[in-house]
Amino acid sequence: MGPPGIEPESCSPAQEPPASPAPPAEEPEPSEAAPAPQQEAEGVPPVAQGSRPGGPGSKGQAKRCGAGKGSRGKRGSTRRAGEEGGRPARRAHVTVDSSKAKTSLEALKISLRQLRWKEFPFGRRLPCDIYWHGVSFHDNDIFSGQVNKFPGMTEMVRKITLSRAVRTMQDLFPEEYNFYPQSWILPEEFPLFVAEVRMMKESDPPWKPTFIVKPDGGCQGDGIYLIKDPSDIRLAGNLQSRPVVVQEYISKPLLIDKLKFDIRLYVLLKSLEPLEIYIAKDGLSRFCTEPYREPTLKNLHQVFMHLTNYSLNIHSGNFIHSDNVNTGSKRTFSSVLYRLSSKGVDIKKLWSDIISLVIKTVLALTPELKVYYQSDIPAGKPGPTCFQILGFDILLMKNLKPVLLEVNANPSMRIEHEQELSPGVFENVPSPVDEEIKVAVIRDTLRLMDPHKKKRKDNHLCILFNFNLPDTCMDSKQRFPPVSSRLPQSNLQFSKFAIVRSQLSENSSDTKDDLLEPGSTDQLEHDISKNPEASLPSLCLKQVFPKYAKQFNYLRLVDRMAALFIRFLGVKGTMKLGPTGFRTFIRNCKLSNSSFSMASVDILYIDITRRWNSMGLDQRESGMCLQAFVEAFFCLAQRRYKSLPLHEQVASLIDFCEYHLAILDEKRLVCSRGITERRAALVTCQPDGLHLTPATHAPLLNRMTAANKLTDYRNYRS
Ligand code: ADP
């Protein structure tokens, strides 16, 4: 549908432009060092941040630090960031390999310059601290440091895999996961799709649904079309080779100026275990270019009315490029929020719904991601740690309910756009709105991942300043300068800002002495070179998990099932459970009995595994994948705890399994202690033949813990 796109995001790696040339010339190590103290995202709800155009997040740049004590005058008494015992600390720059950054290179370069980190654009013979990949975890062979991709993420967010993962959660928690439109995976669920639609139409005759058909692995609206009836599916041709997700079309979206729009939000998965999620306080809103009308047979094909993809709408004559980040066909999300709040919309509630959607979606994705992770980076094998920026595409319904459209593993980080000079002749020009949002996201992701970070109490003054300044005090000139303008211009703005900030400080008598005069750029230059953080705005990324973990932990049932699955995988590097592993799981968790024999266990394994493998998913390995294991687990739970709702059945069975495994672990611990002490217990110790590594099995419990679990379990059952 529509012309070919230009933003290479969420597409298969093949669609990325070729990598930059890589003569591995070793660059000299930097001589000067600069500390980079860590700043945590503040807990302020993004609402307040986005409640005016250019509010923090987008213009989070407005929040700067560095003008407080120690900037001038009291340097002798206040130890400055980067100084120890009065002498500047010399610390190596963080090193970043950008040789595989591809289309995110430009934004990455700007971020690294702001951070004063050391870029290795052609790679490096020695290991780098951070590897920035444009496409996937596998772009480089890395054995240490950090990489900005998780293994398996691209696979996990494909339309079909995401739909399956969310559907599993919908089975368990239908209310909590109703932010994802009802979906069917074709061709395998075509009969189900037809039957369910017929049933719904019969029960609700006025219902005139529309469906959106999306090819798996597609991006930029490619191959997407709308239909009014299941029989309109283009089944001919290669549906088998290119499966699709069919989704209920949200026909009443929220409109602004009669136009449909969606939201691109950037989410940082900082760590998988323990789970850490951050959300960017500002994102992008991408507008359609034709006024919206509810779908009819006549307008179904009007791409510019129904699809918000930038890559499509940019080809419309109505597309508005704007130098102002708060207007035009692509603008900041904060400007949309501002507009909504001025109309009385409860922005706090909206943000909280969005945060909840993001956390729940990540909780749906992470169990299988852990299976990929242990397969690519088995415990005990050298490997990097991972983090990843994800692009969440969200649609707001007319009633302001956010709906998840998709997740992009490789959201476009381009900060320029194509402009058609004459028909067919294009030129790349800077895109201020992309630059503003994306550079901040990359830079602050790097700040959060800073391997050299050290909590420096001395710097807290600076951080406090960051968090106390009312946003309304900033005018556009005082914002962080556009990234295209560098020091020294920014120094001047910085000093003006320092005065405003200091004047606002509660401690005005103290800070008065410390005011930086406009133009005292030497001092600023010195400060910034010693502490690049001093020149940076507050983080645009806000932690939402574990911050809100308490509210969401009850949803982590599949996560606990994945832990059981991984424990019984056995062989390092595998992602599928063999029949022996499944039997061992049943035996160790004491799940077979007179009414459920081991023969029935084998039948269950064969039935479910065969069906999942026939769905044309990954055929490289034989065995039971996590989703099949989850289905088998549901069956076992339903057999055992008939009368409960599904999530309670499953939770009870997980408790039961974890309890028995805890007992087993304890026995093993006692056994291994015995071996060490007496070297005689081997005869009585029955190994189960599993490969247990510290990362894949539950921590060994001491007697007390196991005993507590037993009591808990009894209480739970009674
Ligand atoms: P792609 O990866 O090809 O961009 P998306 O799932 O993002 O695929 O869909 C493309 C566009 O179609 C979205 O940006 C949105 O405007 C529209 N869209 C997708 N799903 C729905 C839906 N269920 N209801 C309404 N509009 C949708």
Task: For the structure shown, list the relevant keywords.
718 residues, alpha+beta, eight-stranded antiparallel beta sheet, 21 strands, 36% helix, disordered C terminus, binds adenosine-5'-diphosphate
How does the SSE layout of this entry go?
Layout lengths: L45 H5 L32 E2 L2 E2 L6 E6 L4 H11 L2 E3 L9 E4 L12 E2 L5 H4 L2 H14 L10 E4 L3 H14 L7 E5 L9 E3 L16 E5 L6 E2 L2 E13 L4 E5 L3 E4 L15 H4 L3 H4 L16 E3 H10 L4 H30 L8 E2 L1 E9 L5 E7 L7 E7 L2 E6 L1 H18 L10 H9 L20 H16 L3 H5 L8 H10 L10 E5 L3 H4 L4 H11 L11 H10 L9 H16 L12 H15 L5 H33 L24 H15 L1
Parallel strand pairs: 3-4, 3-5, 5-6, 6-16
Antiparallel strand pairs: 1-2, 7-10, 8-9, 8-10, 11-12, 12-13, 12-14, 12-17, 13-21, 14-15, 17-18, 19-20
Helix pairs in contact: 2-10, 4-9, 9-16, 16-19, 16-20, 17-18, 18-19, 19-20, 20-21
The structure holds adenosine-5'-diphosphate.
What would your notes on this structure say?
The protein has 718 residues and is of the alpha+beta class. It contains 21 helices and 21 strands. The strands form five sheets. Strands 11, 12, 13, 14, 15, 17, 18 and 21 form an eight-stranded antiparallel sheet that branches. Strands 4-3-5-6-16 form a five-stranded parallel sheet, covered by helices on one side. It has a four-stranded antiparallel sheet with strand order 7-10-8-9, sandwiched between helices. A hairpin with a 4-residue loop joins strand 12 (259-271) and strand 13. Mean pLDDT is 77; it is low at 1-8, 12-86, 454-521 and 681-718. It binds adenosine-5'-diphosphate (ADP). Adenosine-5'-diphosphate binds at residues 10, 181, 212, 214, 218-222, 224, 247, 249-250, 262, 307-309, 393, 395, 405-406. Adenosine-5'-diphosphate is lined by residues 10, 181, 212, 214, 218-222, 224, 247, 249-250, 262, 307-309, 393, 395, 405-406.
